[in-house]
Amino acid sequence: MPLATERLREIVIELASRPGHEKVRSLVYELLVDGLGARSTEVLFERPLPEVHGRMDTLRGRTVFEFKSDLRRETRDVEAKLP
Prior knowledge:
The chain is an alpha+beta fold.
């Protein structure tokens, strides 16, 4: 069942509040599975990938998700991991 508009709004508001890493991961999981119809088995967490110089936060197909608490402060780290 797709995400209701109100639940999507709640997720966006919660993400904008900059919750902790685990909460971000769970909300993105909900968006991918419930919102976009990805299979739960297709969403992988904390997988080592040589291409990103370490572990990526979430992987779905060929899309890598890397979560940062403050992208303004961590831009160099992101650029180093995701060339």
